[in-house]
Amino acid sequence: MIGKLIKRSFDDLLNLFYPNPCLLCDRVLQEQEEFVCTHCRLDLPETGQHRGMAPTTGENKFAGKVPVTFVYSYLYFAKGSRTQRLIHQLKYRNKKELGSLLGRWYGHQLRTECELQHQIDLIVGVPLHPARHRQRGYNQSDWFARGLSEVLEIPWSDRVLARNHFTVSQTGKDRLNRWRNVSSVFSVMQADFIENKRILLVDDVLTTGATLEACTTALLASNCRSVGIITIAATR
Ligand SMILES: [Zn+2]
């Protein structure tokens, strides 16, 4: 208790001299705010895709390639946008807790607006290449998974999927070879564990969908029941 109080006073003192600015507008954050001020939070370019009935842009991307139950992205992503600035901080500025915060924010919407907690059994992040993981020290998708897991009360695991070590240059290969190359990048480490489970696969940004497609293929080949996809952001 006393330790907590001392820590609290120390944090307050620290804030006085080194106030934590909002990552998006530089305004000093209030006590209850983390990373992004309330004003900027309300102004985030949310897609609202989980509320719609029509197929999402993401779902259209996977149509005819691999069966996915849903594809939702929390925010729209564009070059120079606020979303890009957040993703940059999450990936390159060691702000891993920002990933968990975004997961909690979106998790609350998914819980109350489409009851996602009843539609999935396990949350799995797209793994980074091992060399990249070592260099960064963390996987931003796992931190997003953590935040979703906390609010949806669904377990998450970073032990299900593995990204294999090899990287072959993809330039100059034809489309089929390129696809083969990507699809052998991921392997399932615990096939027994995911058998018959409804997996929620999560990643930071959805662009072409090739990586998510490869992960989904690997998961379905290991007899999970279904795969749904959620990303922090997606291009329009
Ligand atoms: Zn702000």
Structure report:
By secondary structure, the protein is of the alpha/beta class. It has two domains: 1-43, no CATH class; 44-235, Rossmann fold, CATH 3.40.50.2020. 43% of the residues lie in helices and 16% in strands. It is built from ten helices and seven strands. It has a five-stranded parallel beta sheet. Helix 4 (82-92) packs across helix 5 and helix 5 (96-114) packs parallel to helix 7 (140-152). The longest helix has 19 residues, at 96-114. The model has no long low-confidence stretch (mean pLDDT 90). The structure holds zinc ion.
Percent range for β-strand residues: 15-25%
Order of helices and strands: HHHEHHEHHEEHEHEHE
Radius of gyration: 19 Å
Q: Count the domains.
A: 2
Secondary structural class: alpha/beta
CATH overall fold name of the largest domain: Rossmann fold
Listed once per kind, the bound small molecules are: zinc ion
What would the principal axes of the Cα set say about the shape? Answer: globular
With strands numbered from the N-terminus, the spatial order across the biggest sheet is 1-7-6-2-3
Please describe the biggest sheet, giving its number of strands, its sense, and whether it closes into a barrel.
Answer: 5 strands, parallel
pLDDT < 50 stretches: none
Keywords:
236 residues, alpha/beta, Rossmann fold, 2 domains, 5-stranded parallel β-sheet, two-stranded antiparallel sheet, 10 helices, binds zinc ion
